[in-house]
Design a protein that fits this description.
Blueprint: H1 30-36, H2 41-64, H3 69-84, H4 87-95, H5 102-115, H6 120-132, H7 150-158, H8 162-175, H9 180-185, H10 191-215, H11 219-230, H12 232-243, E1 258-259, H13 263-268, H14 275-280, H15 289-296, E2 303-304, H16 307-332
Parallel strand pairs: 1-2
């Protein structure tokens, strides 16, 4: 038996995968994996068309509700959710599995990354490290610490650390002053490419801001920036559910959570709720993750019936820990 161990990304920043020997992919047979790995452009193009259509409907809803706050705000929130869920095709393109054609993966990846304020190349290498060192306390750059309090939980949902981190990425990429953590997953050979991409992004954002101010236009604000910022908590909640509260161990069957989301969310999130399956075999395209789930479901140790259930469990644990800490403090006094 042999699976698709994502540790194949190891060594991108000079760190060996041996310090975090991922287990779990071995439950997938070589023949089954070969079948599931088949890539084609059609499913990705169809899913992209659906996502773009949802964006167009969102723009229309925001436009038609203009001047009616009690309608426009919900319309902007719903449209913003579709925007933030563009993280899914960005993520899939970073693996090169959204489409069979390499150039489409790169073109779509760069486009949706730019639209959501993320540099594609930087994300690609950072995400590779996340797969290599999933839930490693020191080397997983995307590990989300379990909330220590309700204030901490709400801060994570609202993105209080996400936005400064994103701004810092753009600043450091523009200046070339990468942190020690970033130098672990960014090979020195791609520094110039990553810096060039980020500088071009920043220049594009500055140009859009300058044109908007010059013409007194609110188009970018109403149809892009505000919905994007307003709905980010939805993506934060989804991303938190992927690993938070799961084991901090190399066992991919237990350190990653699969969430049995509704069909609409699975459609717009490109099947990423099947997240444990994705980590077990990251070379399997999004459209085959449902079939992979049917294959590995009996072995998964962290499965939830929905995102509300995940967050109820997280909140319950946060409150339980808070009461335990208060009781202990009272005993010390």
């Amino acid at each position: 038996m042999q699976g698709d161990n994502s540790a194949s990304y190891a060594g991108i920043g000079g760190i060996g995968s041996k310090i975090w020997p991922l287990t779990g992919p071995e439950i997938i047979s070589r023949d089954k994996l070969k079948t599931l790995r088949t890539r084609t452009d059609q499913p990705g193009l169809i899913r992209l068309a659906v996502h773009l259509s949802a964006l167009a409907l969102g723009v229309l809803a925001v436009h038609l509700s203009a001047g009616i706050p009690w309608l426009q705000i919900p319309a902007m929130l719903a449209y913003g959710v579709v925007i933030v869920l563009l993280f899914a095709p960005l993520h899939e393109c970073s693996h090169g599995t959204a489409f069979h054609s390499r150039w489409i993966n790169h073109a779509v990846g760069f486009a949706v990354a730019a639209f959501t304020f993320r540099p594609f190349l930087y994300f690609k290498y950072r995400h590779a490290a996340h797969h290599t060192f999933t839930q490693h306390e020191d080397h997983d750059p995307d590990i989300v610490p379990f909330p220590t309090s309700m204030r901490d939980y709400l801060g994570q949902i609202l993105g209080l650390s996400f936005w400064p981190k994103l701004a810092g990425t753009l600043w450091r990429g523009s200046t070339g002053h990468f942190t020690e953590e970033e130098r672990e997953f960014l090979p020195a050979s791609v520094f110039k490419q990553v810096m060039l991409e980020i500088r071009l992004l920043v220049l594009a954002y500055m140009a859009i801001a300058a044109v908007s101010i010059y013409f007194g236009s609110t188009i970018a604000l109403v149809y892009w920036l505000l919905p994007r910022f307003m709905s980010e908590p939805v993506l934060r909640a989804i991303r938190m559910a992927e690993h938070t509260g799961a084991e901090e161990s190399p066992n991919l069957l237990a350190n990653t959570r699969t969430t049995l989301a509704n069909p609409v969310l699975r459609m717009l999130y490109w099947n990423m709720p099947f997240h444990a399956e994705h980590h077990l075999a990251s070379s399997v395209p999004f459209h085959a993750l449902g079939r992979l789930h049917a294959e590995v479901a009996p072995h998964l140790e962290c499965v939830s019936k929905g995102y509300f259930q995940v967050h109820r469990e997280i909140i319950r644990e946060v409150l339980r820990n808070g009461r335990a800490d208060s009781k202990t403090a009272g005993q010390r006094v």
